[in-house]
Amino acid sequence: MAGAEDVRVLGVLASPFAMRPRIALNLKKVEYEFVVETMNPKSELLLKSNPVYKKIPVLIHNGNPVCESLVIVQYIDEVWSSSQPILPADPYDRAVARFWAAYIDDKWFPSLMGIAKAQTDADRASSTEQMLAGLQLLEEAFATCSKGKPFFGGDALGYLDIALGCYLGWVRAIGQMYAIQVLDGAKTPQLAAWAERFCADEAVKEVMPETETLVEFAKMMAARWKAAPAPAK
Amino acid sequence: MAGAEDVRVLGVLASPFAMRPRIALNLKKVEYEFVVETMNPKSELLLKSNPVYKKIPVLIHNGNPVCESLVIVQYIDEVWSSSQPILPADPYDRAVARFWAAYIDDKWFPSLMGIAKAQTDADRASSTEQMLAGLQLLEEAFATCSKGKPFFGGDALGYLDIALGCYLGWVRAIGQMYAIQVLDGAKTPQLAAWAERFCADEAVKEVMPETETLVEFAKMMAARWKAAPAPAK
């Protein structure tokens, strides 16, 4: 359906944020080109397309750049509105999905990354506890949003599936590096089963990075954080 | 049009975030009850309606709570979709509006509050510089979004007008407290003129707090920040 359209995603393979537009475009069956951003130095295309943040991902649709991964996913849903919907149809369900997507980015993912960034065992334990408490909330959110169906979005992947699912590669990598059972079938059985379904979905398979690749990347980043710890927040 | 509906906004008068749903409901001509949250201690209604963040504002629509001010504004736009639209109709314009609204909350407003929170003159100067640089970006965004019309949203107030405009009371209060010309007619002429129009709009007038009230509130907060400075970010 996107024959005459020029659709490009500027990103890097290890970025969960860059996975979001790719999964959304796959769900919509829109053909796109994935342009790998070298980052060091940042490409002219990135600097020109996202002058405010200079960050990936950027969706470039017929020459028009769209920035910020969740803004991009909503844009994709609205432009290709006749294909499989990504946000729920009902306004209240949409508000609930937007609320939890923001929670995942603002609160939950920082606690997951806090495990890798921690410089002491106490900090790591504190981040782990926060991250697991957040997952418990998300387990309850899954029950509310999925209404007994396989995905947050119901019968098929939707907005919240994409928002949380893009982090599953990092969940595995950090779990492996620090011997933490992040998605525990006993504590968060619904999310654990959902994660299996999400990763097996056709729209996701080709864009989910190998855990080993992320572990390598995380080790490199951990060495960098150790050399220059992030400022306290 | 909202005769049989139960619409309540839980908030406090000085909160820019609580102004957002109120302006949106005024634009839609939806009747609502403003429930003043006492905050200390937090009400049972707040704790029950927003158990994750325990923060105002909350919109309670026929018993269903919606949290996070920009999520609420989008919800209002989608529920009362036959009245004056709040988000632009075009998907690209919507993405641009969402991008800048997030920028305003994540980057610009923290730099404005940084002026009040600063414990040293150097920190205050640095926050002032960041805030003014951000305004310059928003001046350009105004030109792009308004397309020569009076508001970000075009002929009438829209999403981005609400997102930025709700901070104008704080712009005045902080400008007065620290003798800073925030909206400078020479440097940001379009925003300065827009701010006058925004504050004079019927949907805004009754919800915009008096500058003096905010100055009093800011002085109280400044004393608190001096006693317990916020952690570095």
Automatic annotation (TrEMBL), chains A, B:
Domain of life of the source: Eukaryota
GO CC annotations on file: cytosol
Catalytic activity annotation: RX + glutathione = an S-substituted glutathione + a halide anion + H(+)
Subcellular location: Cytoplasm, Cytosol
Domain GST C-terminal: 90-217
Domain GST N-terminal: start-end pairs: 5-84
EC number: 2.5.1.18
GO molecular function, a single term: glutathione transferase activity
Keyword terms: Cytoplasm, Transferase
UniProt-listed GO biological process terms: glutathione metabolic process; toxin catabolic process
Broadest EC class assigned to this enzyme: transferase
Cross-referenced SUPFAM superfamilies: GST C-terminal domain-like (SSF47616), Thioredoxin-like (SSF52833)
Principal subcellular localization: cytoplasm
A Pfam match: GST_C_2
Claim: Transferase is one of the keywords in the record: yes
PANTHER family the UniProt entry points to: GLUTATHIONE S-TRANSFERASE U17, GLUTATHIONE S-TRANSFERASE, GST, SUPERFAMILY, GST DOMAIN CONTAINING
Chain's role: Is involved in the conjugation of reduced glutathione to a wide number of exogenous and endogenous hydrophobic electrophiles.
Family: Belongs to the GST superfamily. Tau family.
Name by which UniProt lists this protein: Glutathione S-transferase
Organism encoding this protein: Colocasia esculenta (Wild taro)
Lineage: Eukaryota, Viridiplantae, Streptophyta, Embryophyta, Tracheophyta
